[in-house]
Amino acid sequence: MGQMLAIDYGRARCGIAITDDMQIIASGLETVPTSFLMEFLRKYFNENKVDEVVVGLPVDLKGNISEIETDILKFLEIFQEEFPTIKINRFDERFTSKMASFFISQSGKSKKQRQEKGLIDKISATIILQNFLEQRTR
Q1: Considering the domain 3-137, what is its CATH architecture?
Q2: pLDDT tens-digit readout, 36-58
Q3: pTM of this prediction?
Q4: Could you write out the three-class secondary structure of the chain?
Q5: Domain limits of the chain?
């Protein structure tokens, strides 16, 4: 069994999280500039066994899809062509950024560290992945 990897996709940067090889626990891995995302994934997949990817589904409180979904769908087309054997899952990412900000504020980090957007993206990806894992086991 290989890892699962989650992507909190954004126009400027993407948060990345992974599971352990048993696919039990999600951990934040990296924040990558979106322009380098495919390059990062090629390198990571070459060095690690990844079975599935979870990509956040940007939905607002009313259930409407955010405009960034257009960019995500373009990315997923390219991803599917390049990595046809890796299964893609989508998962509702509502409130993940707010939850990430809350967890960071409770962590004792300095104000400057708490405001680092890359940290929020990485933790958001971790929340998406952990929630996906928990839903899968129910």
Answers
A1: 2-Layer Sandwich (3.30)
A2: 999 999 999 999 999 999 999 88
A3: 0.85
A4: CCEEEEEECCCCEEEEEEECCCCCCEEEEEEEEHHHHHHHHHHHHHHCCEEEEEEEECECCCCCECCCHHHHHHHHHHHHHHCCCCEEEEEECCCHHHHHHHHHHHCCCCHHHHCCHHHHHHHHHHHHHHHHHHHHHC
A5: 3-137
